[in-house]
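This part of the workshop introduces the protein records we will be handling. An example says more than a description, so a record of this kind follows.
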Amino acid sequence: MPLARTGDIVGPAHTARTGVGAFNVVQIEHAEAIVSGAEHAGRPVILQISENTVRYHGALAPVGLASLALARSARVPVAVHLDHAESVGLVEEAVALGFSSVMFDASRLPYEENVALTREVAERCHRADVWVEAELGEVGGKDGAHAPGVRTDPDEARAFVRATGVDALAVAVGSSHAMLTRDAELDLPLITRLREEARVPLVLHGSSGVSDGGLAKAVAAGMTKVNVSTHLNKLFTRAVREHLAADPAVVDPRKYLGPARAAVATEAARLLHLLAGAAA
């Protein structure tokens, strides 16, 4: 199957009022697990690579090209997306590598600066037929760069989308990045208002902190792209710990990374089913 485009996955889901899973890749095992889970579920998925992951690997190309290769060989539509990029240079590199979408995050800048820089990035990306997500109203928990408790204003969201021309908007509605518990309380009426005013697909960041029921309600209220990272990493790490505890003498990483990969694949498939049926 040819490499899927993010817009071709998110657009129909937005119209149908269903959810799309966008899961973060930290290393190749994550990408393999997410694609395997999507194939098992028979659902499209988005592989996301964050700027923090790029720093971890020292470059975008190794993990990016591996993710693109897995996406191209998948039996279901798989797109590759750059997540939470604050560097314009990194956005340009992702576009050059063949990513079909980017999330440019200038949300910690003053509003007018956010608009101006995001509009410039969106114009460049659209010339390359690349879909652009941006953020308005900071989502908490991102290495201190985002203020917790902030909410996106619907009128400002409408003006921001019109001024920048972005294709999707990440909004602050009560979730927070890197949550280890799934008890975040989302503002569902605000999500509905934001969908009505922004008129582009909405993106829920910090979804790991939201329960299954909360995710279903969020999609029904108007969310489309649902980002998950920490929740899958918890399962990955738990599987590694359990295997090492059961066999302390193991030295072959494949022996403990394999079960971790399988755990993520199983949960990715479950989440994709949940999101697809959330509005039904």
Summary: Confidence is low (pLDDT under 50) at residues 139-148.
